[in-house]
């Protein structure tokens, strides 16, 4: 009886050992299948190659600046009077010599007439003095220089001539004219107001040639020189670009560095 029990125990243990071994093999196979299915082929990495060449290294500097007109003219009130007319508006293009407006000319016309009368009187006095020397005013080229100079001083001819020139100039400036061709900006003048109420009549900008002012850091200054090419891209003209050259470099360091 003891012998049968021992044999049965050995057979049972062997059977259990075989079953455990078979289950481990199945688990390993399942794990291998899972690993094979989850494997992802790594993407191919392509590398471009460029031959190395000796040459200059390009350094790009980017800076924001402000465009200004190359030429700007401030149109002042040369004489002070009531503003009579304003013939232009802001943004209008004008030509050099074009009349922009005017101030009341009455006072300066009167002064011009008075200066002309004094000049003519001095001419009469000058001729009388020259007759005393035995000359006529038509013979001015023959008159000795010292005698002609003395006659002009004593007759008041020189001062009358200067006063006439000044009066003529003041009268002409009652018509305000454009000194250059360009666009009218900062128009201050208003009709029926005294010219003393304004600092100027207007400004005129010549936009045919522009000037760009931009700032650089001290560390960037060594990479910039006069005559160097600059590429300009205005914010107002998207996609447009222009070329210019460095005309001058201001070495002063300000709060921007």
Low-confidence stretches: 1-21
Largest beta sheet: what is the strand line-up? Answer: 1-7-6-3
Number of helices: 4
Helix content: 25-40%
* Average pLDDT taken over every residue: 83
Distance, first to last CA? 109 Å
Total DSSP E strands = 9
Biggest β-sheet strands, sense, barrel: 4 strands, antiparallel
Q: β content, as a range?
A: 15-25%
Structural class: alpha+beta
Radius of gyration: 49 Å
Shape assignment: elongated
The string of secondary-structure elements, in order, is HEEEEHHHEEEEE
Structure in words:
The protein has 257 residues and is of the alpha+beta class. Among the domains are: 106-156, no CATH class; 215-257, no CATH class. Helix content is 35%, strand content 19%. It has helices at 2-38, 106-132, 145-155, 157-172, and strands at 65-75, 83-86, 93-94, 99-103, 175-177, 182-185, 202-214, 229-232, 242-245. Strands 1-7-6-3 form a 4-stranded antiparallel β-sheet, with no helix packed on it. It has a 3-stranded antiparallel β-sheet with strand order 2-4-5, with no helix packed on it. Helix 2 packs across helix 3 (145-155). The longest helix has 37 residues, at 2-38. It is elongated. The relative contact order is 0.16.
């Amino acid at each position: 009886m003891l012998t049968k029990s021992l044999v049965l125990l050995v057979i049972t243990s062997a059977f259990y050992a075989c079953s455990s071994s078979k289950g481990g093999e199945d688990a390993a196979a399942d794990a291998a299948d899972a690993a094979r299915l989850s494997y992802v082929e790594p993407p191919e990495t392509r590398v471009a190659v460029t031959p190395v060449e000796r040459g200059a290294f390009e350094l790009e500097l980017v800076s924001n600046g402000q465009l200004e007109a190359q030429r700007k003219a401030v149109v002042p009130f040369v004489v002070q009077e009531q503003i009579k007319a304003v013939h232009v508006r802001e943004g209008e293009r004008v030509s050099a010599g074009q009349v922009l407006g005017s101030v009341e000319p009455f006072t300066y016309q009167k002064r011009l007439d008075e200066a002309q009368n004094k000049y003519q009187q001095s001419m009469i006095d000058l001729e009388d003095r020259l007759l005393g020397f035995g000359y006529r005013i038509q013979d001015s080229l023959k008159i000795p220089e010292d005698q002609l100079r003395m006659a002009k001083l004593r007759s008041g001819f020189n001062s009358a001539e200067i006063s006439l020139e000044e009066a003529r100039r003041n009268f002409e400036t009652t018509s305000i004219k454009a000194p250059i061709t360009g666009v009218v900006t900062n128009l201050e003048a208003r009709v029926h107001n005294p010219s003393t109420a304004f600092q100027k009549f207007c400004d005129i900008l010549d936009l045919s040639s522009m000037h760009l002012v931009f700032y650089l850091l001290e560390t960037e200054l060594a990479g910039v020189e006069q005559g160097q090419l600059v590429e300009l891209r205005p914010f107002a003209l998207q996609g447009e670009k222009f070329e210019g050259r460095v005309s001058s470099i201001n070495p002063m360091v300000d709060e921007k560095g």
